[in-house]
Amino acid sequence: MLKKLDKYILKKFLPAFFLSITLILLIFIVFDIKDKLSSFTSNHIPIKEIIFDYYLMFIPYYGNFFSPLFAFISVIFVTSKMAQQTEFIAILSSGTSFNRILRPYIIGAALLSLGSLIFNHFFLPKAFKIKIGFEDKWINENYNNSDQNIHIKIGSNRLLYIESYENRINTGFRVSVEDVVNNKQTYFLSAEKMVWDTASSEWIFINAHERILIVQNRLDTIKNQKPIYKQVKKFYPEKKMKLAFHPIDMWRDESKIETKSYFEMKEYIAREKAKGSSRIAAYEVELYKRTSFPFATFILTIIGVCISSRKVRGGVGLQIAFGLVLSCIYVMLQYVFITIATTGFASPLLGVWIPNIAFSFVALYFYKTAQK
């Protein structure tokens, strides 16, 4: 149950956080409107879509992205102000321990971290889906995949070739499907095009030529006892097939990973591993980042309390400046190790969590040296 001290600090900390994050989001929106105003007006985008499909989706993403930084700044601002007014000295002099003072901050940070964790895994993907749909429709001029001669492994033994692909109509042109077992082609299908059937979640191959190689129950004694293969050829005006390949696989990378919730992302990664995709590290980094990122709020909050609970010369401004430097170092470490993990030079799980592990030791150091 919350005591008076908990309520007192939380009433200072949480409103300061929400006020600061709101102000920075308003500034971001103003600059974004200034940057995209010409696109909005020239494309005659309805105001309703700009507000509800873009900016209402824009706000949760950047709000969540900046939440650790502004939780840190809010803690430093509130705590250093209390220290300058000698409130901390009075609280400590009354016999209250430093650990007890930390409690409301930990409660506040835990609430923000939990909210961020749920947002990252379940709500932000839905917001991204709407935002990216808006951008592709109006700003990116109906984004379409421009890759040519696409080769994709869609199973342990199956390869798919597409000469070109049209995202707007979910259609691939001049395509082929090939099964290779023990370096021997056992199945081959070529078609003029393949069209996605939403109702059955299958691909319809138009003007398809199919060739199946069947092993006979006898050996060719003339050719070193090798198996004899029989070819069966067929033509289909239309042929439906289920493949481990879906229209989403041809979307932008942002659409592939940022629009998926936790369970969808796990399923997608498993499917991509089965295909032998080269992008597995990037997908795993995104998944692990969604979990590790909220913990930054918790770690930075503890550091913020420890460095700002002491009354120092220079006042609040000096402590906020020091806090910003620490935040910049933390963000830089995040980007460096995420890049290392994405390129495959480190485990995605380890790469994503290293900044949190490193700053946990920084938090421990400041805790040990904090005014008690």
In short:
This protein has 372 residues and is α+β, with helices and mostly antiparallel strands. It has helices spanning 4-42, 47-65, 67-84, 87-93, 98-139, 253-258, 262-275, 280-308, 315-342, 348-369; strands at 148-153, 158-166, 171-181, 184-197, 202-220, 226-241.
Outline the structure in words.
This protein is about 60% helix and about 20% strand. The chain has about 375 residues and is α+β, with helices and mostly antiparallel strands. The longest helix has about 40 residues, at about 100-140. The radius of gyration is 28 Å and the shape is elongated. The protein starts with a helix and ends with a helix. The relative contact order is 0.12.
What is the tally of helical segments?
10
| Helix coverage percent | 55-70%
Structural class call reads alpha+beta
- H/E element string? HHHHHEEEEEEHHHHH
Main beta-sheet strand count, sense and barrel state: 6 strands, antiparallel
Low-pLDDT stretches are none
The number of strands is 6
What fraction of the residues are assigned to beta strands by DSSP? 15-25%
Overall outline? elongated
The largest sheet has its strands arranged as: 1-2-3-4-5-6
Number of domains: 2
Mean pLDDT: 85
Terminal-residue CA separation: 24 Å
Q: What gyration radius follows from the Cα positions, in whole Å? A: 28 Å
What topology does this entry show?
Elements: H1 4-42, H2 47-65, H3 67-84, H4 87-93, H5 98-139, E1 148-153, E2 158-166, E3 171-181, E4 184-197, E5 202-220, E6 226-241, H6 253-258, H7 262-275, H8 280-308, H9 315-342, H10 348-369
Antiparallel strand pairs: 1-2, 2-3, 3-4, 4-5, 5-6
Helix pairs in contact: 1-2, 1-3, 1-5, 2-5, 3-8, 3-9, 5-8, 7-8, 8-9, 8-10, 9-10
